[in-house]
Amino acid sequence: MVTDASRVRGLAPVRAATQADQGSLAPGPGQAYPPRVGISLVVVIGIGVLTLAAPGLAPYDPRLSVAMPLQPPGPAHWLGTNDIGQDVLSQWLYAARATVAIALTVTILATLLAWSAGLLSGLSARGETPILALIDLLLALPALPLSMLVLTLIGPTQSNVALLLGLLGWPAFARVVRAQVIATRAAPYVEAARGLGAASIHIARTHILPATLVVFPAHLLLTLRFAVFAEATLAFLGLGDPSTASWGAMLGWAFANPLLFTSMAWTWLVLPPALGIACLLLIGGRARPLRNPF
Amino acid sequence: MIRLVLRYAALALAVVALNFGLPRLLPGDPLDAFAPDGLGPAATLTASARARLQATYHLDQPLAAQFAAYAGDLVRGDLGWSISRNAPVGQLIAERLPWSLALVLTALVLAAALGGGLGLTAAWHAGRADRWLTTVSTLVAALPEFLVAMALLLVLAVGLHWFPLQGGRSAFAGGGLLDVIWHLSLPVLTLVLATSAGFTLLARGAVLGVKNAPYLVAARGKGLSETTLAVRHAVPNAMLPVLTLFAVRLGQVLGGALVVERVFAVPGLGLLAFEAIQARDYPVLQAIFLLASLSTLGAMFGLELVYRHLSPHGH
To answer: Which entry of A51, A169, B37, B265 is 20 to 30 Å from A217 by CA?
Structure first.
């Protein structure tokens, strides 16, 4: 029989993870939502609109040189042009798209992997050792030098970047899910279901999987953040898809120009993408990353 | 103890094997680029020349033999040959290493001291200062280093002209120690800001965890001053998480401060890695990955030993 004390201890890491932001985004009874929830919602909706409507909103083709290089913002080009005469506003809008596409792909992939690994390692005795060893190895490897090496070898296309970050982004939460599985599988109601003769696959699906979803909101927020953070850093270092530039790539190009700081050009080349990345990363306010990606 | 050593030896072996295997996992033959239908510079690679090249690079041998040759080179300290600079990788890294070490070690020590102190203060004096400090630290910790670097660069170097824009020393001026310190101050400041946020949060959490522990209540009951309580009784028990983060960061020193060195063009390992990306210079990136992962493992191993020393009953 399982005592209450051991269940509480088993749940401790999960609680630590979900409450890392000092209370979830949901308010307690009789409390208003804190303002950060509203601000985050506005940012999410704004980015969503930008992403979906980029082709309609963008005044020019972001890949074409449409004007003189390095023109300051004006009526024809609201955010000016870059060093090869591309319209910065159009680029910025399409870059939001690229950033969101990668972030969503990474999150879906990392979610599937984290939950499969967490459930497998928590439920199957045979799967436990190899999965834990893999998690250990992935957490020990320095992510940025590894990503740089791999992406230089396989080419930094958009899908390669998303695939790599998805493959790197799951171990931390696989551990959290596993802790949750271990805490749940000994719970009295699961034992009761087992006593009634339920198949283990049925127990896993109807009793254990739902219990792990407690950590899903935290996972979603932190993994999205990991993806944006990591993608922006890689793209800034020149490891982004040149045909679908993201905000990080725009910053990287701006810094590759030695004349960036000799004029005011940085105000329209650096500030828009930098603010975009900052907005995306500050969604959710004070929620803390389990682990900084780089 | 033996299990611990074995575990880290296995991890180190996995890292070396990964470093060896990654380029070989990819489809294709490196010499195909030079084949007659390839687009390489030597468009006519005869069969005999090809065989000679294969022999030079051990590509005609089985994988196990290739791995043995690779491991032998590593043991002798041969990290490979840089494609873009036509020089031994080991020599390139040795040239750049002092810059990275100076930059990252200085920043790490400062960040740990600053973050630890701030975290302790925040936890000890709960209230408005605590809330502000936690909020600012979490926000800074959520931002990539290059954004912090750019903000500092734009305000302090471009706007106020207090610091140089880029580089490790003034060009053509010889550049004494003061000149180097002046050039490195913005990169160090960036790293301190970005890194200390994590230390602040960890230290705060750890101190909060022990703040109301019975032994502290007892110590307070003896009439000890708050400072003595905090420094002599709370800190030692709150050290472990801070120490852990310190070890993790220490392990990453050999990777250089990749992003920050790029923004400020500090000629360290990070900038070397960036230049290697531009030139698709795999051997350099491989060596940097290898060094970074092995030093991370080494730091973690050292940390485990320190853990054992600090809490002998924990194992």
So the answer is: A51
Whether A22 has a pLDDT exceeding 60, the answer reads no
Read off the pTM. 0.82
Q: Quick one: tokens of B20?
A: 């060896």
Residue A34: how many other CB atoms lie within 10 Å: 14
Alpha-helix residue ranges (DSSP H) falling in B78-213: 89-124, 128-142, 145-152, 177-211
| Of the partner residues B141, B147, B277, the one whose CB lies closest to the CB of residue A277 | B147
Residue A183's SS3 state is: helix
Instruction: Tell me the per-residue pLDDT of B212-254, one tens digit each, with 9 for 90 and over.
Output: 888 888 888 888 888 888 888 888 877 888 888 888 888 777 7
Helix (H, G, I), strand (E, B) or coil at B2: helix
Q: How is residue B19 written in tokens? A: 């470093």
Query: Which residue reads 């070898």 in tokens?
Result: A153
Q: Which residue of B has its CA nearest to A147?
A: B289
pLDDT tens figures, B24-55? 777 666 666 555 555 555 556 677 877 877 77
Residues in chain B with CB shorter than 8 Å from the CB of A233 are 144-146, 259
Closest among B113, B34, B93, B129 to B254, alpha carbons compared: B93
What Rg do the C-alpha atoms of chain B give, in angstroms? 25
Q: Following DSSP, what letter does each residue of A38-95 receive, concatenated?
A: HHHHHHHHHHHHHHHHHHHH-SS-TTS--S-TTPPS-SSSTT-B-TTS-BHHHHHHHH
For residue B263, give the nearest of A136, A149, A255 by CB distance. Answer: A255
How large is the greatest C-alpha to C-alpha distance in chain B, in angstroms?
A: 88
Which residue matches tokens 């601000």?
Answer: A39
User: What's at A226, amino acid-wise?
Assistant: F
> What angle, 0 to 180 degrees and rounded to 10, lies between the N-to-C axes of helices B177-211 and B128-142?
120
Whether residue A85 contacts residue A243, with contact meaning beta carbons closer than 8 Å, is answered with: no
Question: Cβ(B207)–Cβ(B234) under 8 Å?
Answer: yes
Hey, how many other C-beta atoms are within 10 angstroms of the C-beta on B122? 23
